[in-house]
Amino acid sequence: MADNAISRFMRIPVSVRDARERQEKLAAANPHLMDALTNNKRQGQRLAVYARWVALAVIAMLLPIVNFDWSVIYYEVILLGFALIGWAQLKAGTVGLSRWELFLLFCDLALMTVTILVPNPFSEEQFPDAMQYRLGNFIYFFVLLAAATLAYSWRTIIAFGTWTFALWITGMLVVGFFGRQIPQLSQQIKAALPEFPMLAGFFDPNNILIGFRIQEIVVFVIVAAILALNGWRNNELLLKQAEATRERENLARHFPPNIVDQMADQDDPFGQVRSQSVAVLFADIVGFTHMAEQNTPERVVGLLRQFHGLLEAAVFNNNGTLDKFLGDGVMATFGTPRAGPDDAANAIRCAHEMLSAIETWNIQRVEQGEEAINLSIGIHFGAVVLGDIGSSRRLEFATLGDTVNVASRLEALTRSLDTRLIVSNELINAVDNYSDQEQKQFLSSFQSAGRQSIRGRSGEIEIWKLAGSLH
């Protein structure tokens, strides 16, 4: 979230840039990801601000107990300043780059540094500025760090540690060179402990104790780096979950939910290019060109969306794969990506459900004064080639072969044979399990249409047609 600003303090490695680009691509491909990131960021900010306010309230009550003096009001006012900065951060927070957010974060650290290193101007007792380091107030930086981990990205946490390091070292140099000193105190300590120079140096109120100061800030930076590493892990987990969700959504566009569940558990759900026997179904609206001419584009699109929705449901309800939408039609397969004993039966069940759904829909359309829809279906069963086709930039899982072409020709043949559904004899012979009584009755309504020639294919094919007229 603070990439540009942080990069000024450190060089961002290639892996970081790759992660950022991956997140941007995922957000563009999946709009729900940006919503999830936004909600996560806002929730983290609210938690951070609420935690800050609770911590500040506890500290505000603790200070008068630790330092029972009216000068403590100075620190109470500073606590109020921290509370206001937290409120401003909540208002300025965004998922992307926010200069105001970075500025307020820096204000947090700068105010904490000044509070720790600058003596209370209302205190009656005056002592060397180096004594500010002896009060142990550096631990309050960890309160800010803990709150920051709730609201900011791991890169911003790294910047948080970097800025704190710079401010603390700068403050130490300023106090060391320009801070108020009382030399006689150092002399008195040395005189009192002449045989213990190290101990005298430790108790010297003018001594900053550089080694301790460096130890403090190094430990702080280490903790910040560990928290940033944990934030990076959580971010990677979020991106992987988003990728998995996107992949699952892509599968769900083609396969029924139960098949998606099975394929999601496999590393290579499609497998290698192969040949296997499947049932291929083509369905189409009869006379769609005329209907499109008589209606506005908006009404045509609305009709197609409803039509595709009905056919899609029928395909998925019968364990089929929605191969593609073909304008006013669909192509579906049964037995992809894995073949099963019920593929042929499922294809016939799907056709039955499609015809029933269109009949119900037509009743509603006629009641609304709209034209009824005539559906034609062709199904064939046979060997196909399954695999990814396309270029290195874009691949698509496809079903290819003579079986696909025959199924398409059977759907077109419904016009000349005046029927709503034509199936090949290969499909009928492939039905192994058809125990449902209603489906048995549907299957008995087929009539042999003998052997028919198929356009673009040598020889003839034996087919069956559904009794009843197409219109």
Describe the structure.
- 30% of the residues are buried.
- This protein has helices at 3-6, 14-29, 31-66, 73-92, 99-117, 140-151, 154-178, 183-192, 197-203, 210-252, 257-264, 288-294, 297-317, 343-367, 402-417, 425-430, 437-444; strands at 274-285, 321-326, 329-334, 375-390, 395-400, 421-424, 446-453, 460-466.
- Helix content is 60%, strand content 14%.
- It has 2 domains: 3-250, no CATH class; 271-466, Alpha-Beta Plaits (2-Layer Sandwich), CATH 3.30.70.
- The longest helix is centred in the middle third of the chain and has 43 residues, at 210-252.
- Strands 1, 2, 3, 4, 5, 6, 7 and 8 form an 8-stranded mixed sheet that branches.
- By secondary structure, the protein is an alpha+beta fold.
- The radius of gyration is 37 Å and the shape is rod-shaped.
- Strand 4 and strand 5 (395-400) form a beta hairpin.
- It contains 17 helices and 8 strands.
Top keywords for this entry?
single chain; about 475 residues; alpha+beta; Alpha-Beta Plaits; eight-stranded mixed β-sheet; 17 helices; about 15% strand; disordered N terminus
